[in-house]
Amino acid sequence: MIVIDGQQSGHSIGNFANLEQLLVKVMDDENLGNRIVTDVLVNEEAFSEIYPHQAEDIGVRDIKSVEIRTVGMTEMAANIVEELFKVQKVMYAGSRQIAELFRQADDAEALELYQDLIDVTRDFLAMVGVLRDEFSMTDSEYLSQRMEELSELFSEIMEVVENQDWILLSDLLEYEFVPALEKWQAVLTGIRTDIAARANG
Q1: Is 70 a domain residue?
Q2: Is residue 134 part of a domain?
Q3: pLDDT digits (tens, 9 = 90+) for 43-82
Q4: Which pLDDT tens digit goes with each residue over 55-65?
Q5: Other beta carbons less than 10 A from residue 115's beta carbon
């Protein structure tokens, strides 16, 4: 039995050689369009590949049921924006904590947290970029300005890190990076509004 979002598919498991073939064919035929697969359950257990094309190595002989769960792209985007609000708060708090640690001369822990902050910020900006490309933003100029502002700040921060001027880095994080992050509340609110308009339009 193959089920997609609670509806039984017309396909039969026995018509396929392996799980990958089944998933590719079913998802093509069901015309999922603007939907994203969130879960695949095989014999009522969650399945995710440990290595690329693992599903190709799983024969269908022992498979009794396959359930595919999907979510609409706009719904997924809305969920991502809500997560980005949380990430923005984490970045805000992290920046202040790093600045404080550097001022206390706790350089080792501060540098560890600083690296985490850089990674999180890169991921944050990449995800905002994906949303911007997928959903035309009403105020794209403001968004571009905010992205450019963070990018320029990053360049300045990198130079300071190379010079190992931890006090200047503290000042940059607290007095420039944190205020720049505060402006992202408005950006994320705008993205949330645009996605909601797409969902209702």
Answers
A1: no
A2: yes
A3: 999 998 888 888 888 888 888 899 998 888 888 888 899 9
A4: 888 888 888 89
A5: 12
Any idea of the CA torsion for 7, 11, 16, 21, to the nearest 10 degrees? -60
| Whole-structure pTM value | 0.72
- Measuring CA to CA, which residue among 98, 184, 200 is closest to residue 139? 184
Contact between residue 84 and residue 127 where contact means Cβ atoms under 8 Å apart? yes
Q: Are residues 140 and 173 in the same domain?
A: yes
- Do residue 120 and residue 168 come from a single domain? yes
Q: Is 118 a domain residue? A: yes
Tell me which residue range forms the domain holding 41.
Answer: 2-64
Residues for the chain: how many in total? Answer: 201
Instruction: Give how many domains the chain has, as a whole number.
Output: 2
